Amino acid sequence: AQSVSQHNHHVILSEAASLELGCNYSYGGTVNLFWYVQYPGQHLQLLLKYFSGDPLVKGIKGFEAEFIKSKFSFNLRKPSVQWSDTAEYFCAVRGMDSSYKLIFGSGTRLLVRP
Amino acid sequence: GAVVSQHPSWVICKSGTSVKIECRSLDFQATTMFWYRQFPKQSLMLMATSNEGSKATYEQGVEKDKFLINHASLTLSTLTVTSAHPEDSSFYICSAITYRNSYEQYFGPGTRLTVT
């Protein structure tokens, strides 16, 4: 069965610190990978996605993620976080069947202290 | 573009009553819509996949008779929680996909349901 694991449930950083959030998935086939962000009181927004090609993908707001196929990982990174990055971050995987269903990880709550 | 709305944004109902939640794609036609449930401080759990004009496909463990889904048009899907109980209190989120952008999912703002 498909599954997504996010190892960090809560992360607290100071502004300007670097961020890396882990995401590992389990799926027996080709996948599309996504990172979503949910700011307090707002709906889910797409940060970035990987379908194919360059395994290092850049998203909005200075975020990037690297797909490492051998490790089944898709970790999210940002060199220098800001207070406004305080939010919950979800990794998601989508199999290449026709259902287009997303399977979400448990989420990581990031708190950035000014 | 690609805006999804939900109505209502929050609702309180009494135990035993039914509640309908609407999900609309405002500026595109959605081939498929999805319904998720999110418990406090937890992830999104997919409840069902809704295609226009056909029966919804429910995930394992989701009671189809309790969570009725109707997808009457390419821009509207509804979720009706029937005979609601306090344990149905949750945050319900819908999403919609279109053939554009490789079937990327666009999410609604969610509906907070509280059953008293």
Q: Which helices and strands, and how do they pair?
A:
The complex is a heterodimer of chains A (114) and B (116).
Chain A lengths: L2 E3 L4 E5 L4 E3 L2 E3 L4 E8 L6 E6 L5 E3 L5 E5 L4 E6 L8 E9 L7 E2 L3 E6 L1
Parallel strand pairs in A: 2-12
Antiparallel strand pairs in A: 1-4, 3-9, 5-6, 5-10, 7-8, 8-9, 10-11, 10-12
Chain B lengths: L3 E4 L2 E4 L5 E7 L6 E7 L5 E8 L5 E2 L8 E7 L2 E6 L8 E8 L7 E3 L3 E5 L1
Parallel strand pairs in B: 2-11
Antiparallel strand pairs in B: 1-3, 3-8, 4-5, 4-9, 5-6, 7-8, 9-10, 9-11
Describe, in plain words, how this protein is organized in 3D:
The complex is a heterodimer of chains A (114) and B (116). Helices cover 0% and strands 52% of the residues of chain A. Chain A is built from no helices and 12 strands. In chain A, strands 2, 5, 6, 10, 11 and 12 form a 6-stranded mixed beta sheet that branches. In chain A, strands 3-9-8-7 form a 4-stranded antiparallel beta sheet, with no helix packed on it. Chain A has a two-stranded antiparallel ribbon with strand order 1-4. The model of chain A has no long low-confidence stretch (mean pLDDT 93). Chain B has 116 residues and is mainly β. Chain B has no helices and 11 strands. In chain B, a hairpin with a 5-residue loop joins strand 5 (44-51) and strand 6 (57-58).
